[in-house]
């Protein structure tokens, strides 16, 4: 079977390089098309261990808003996004908060925090 390169568009800088990534045994063996050093690193992470910053909202009770916007303070593994959303659905905010306040420490045991993204006063 012939190895067909995976095509990616790098999102690390405004150049949006069209990357071609050769993969063998789920590992990157070659990256081409990058116009800065960030491209190769992006391709390796995206193929071997993709992560995303999760943005969502949690329910508020007894506050001036019904939903509180939140996000993880660092990326989490992409395969855990659905699990994370399930946990977010269980969270209720009942007190005033400032942007950046931690809603859940060490979220899912991943060493990241779930934080608010705006003031709720």
Folded structure, characterized:
With 121 residues, this protein is of the alpha+beta class. The protein folds into two domains: 6-49, no CATH class; 55-116, CPE0013-like fold. The chain is built from two helices and ten strands. A hairpin with an 8-residue loop joins strand 1 and strand 2 (18-24). The protein is elongated. The model has no long low-confidence stretch (mean pLDDT 95).
What tags apply to this protein structure?
10 strands, elongated, five-stranded mixed beta sheet, single chain, 2 domains, three-stranded antiparallel beta sheet, CPE0013-like fold, 121 residues, alpha+beta, 2 helices
Morphology:
elongated
Strand content: 25-35%
Please give the count of helices. 2
Percent of residues in helices comes to 10-25%
The CATH class of the largest domain turns out to be Alpha Beta
Low-confidence stretches: none
Structural class: alpha+beta
Topology as a string of helices (H) and strands (E): EEEHEEEEHEEE
In CATH terms, what is the fold-level topology of the largest domain? CPE0013-like fold
The largest sheet, given as strand count, sense and whether it forms a barrel, is: 5 strands, mixed
CA-atom Rg in angstroms = 19 Å
The assigned CATH architecture of the largest domain is: Roll
Instruction: Tell me the count of domains.
Output: 2
Mean pLDDT: 95
**Strand neighbour order, sheet with most strands:** 8-5-6-10-9
Distance between the termini: 60 Å
Q: What's the total count of β strands?
A: 10
Query: Mind telling me the CATH superfamily name of the largest domain?
Result: CPE0013-like
């Amino acid at each position: 079977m012939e190895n067909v390169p995976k095509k990616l568009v790098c999102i690390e800088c405004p150049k949006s390089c069209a990357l071609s990534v050769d993969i063998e045994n789920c590992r990157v063996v070659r990256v081409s098309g990058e116009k800065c050093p960030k491209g190769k690193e992006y391709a390796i992470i995206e193929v071997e261990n993709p992560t995303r910053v999760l943005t969502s909202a949690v329910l508020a009770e007894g506050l001036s808003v019904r939903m509180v916007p939140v996000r993880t303070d660092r990326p989490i593994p992409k395969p855990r996004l659905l699990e994370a959303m399930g946990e977010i659905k269980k969270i209720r905010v009942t007190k005033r908060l400032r942007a950046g306040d931690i809603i859940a420490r060490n979220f899912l045991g991943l060493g990241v925090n779930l934080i608010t993204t705006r003031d709720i006063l």
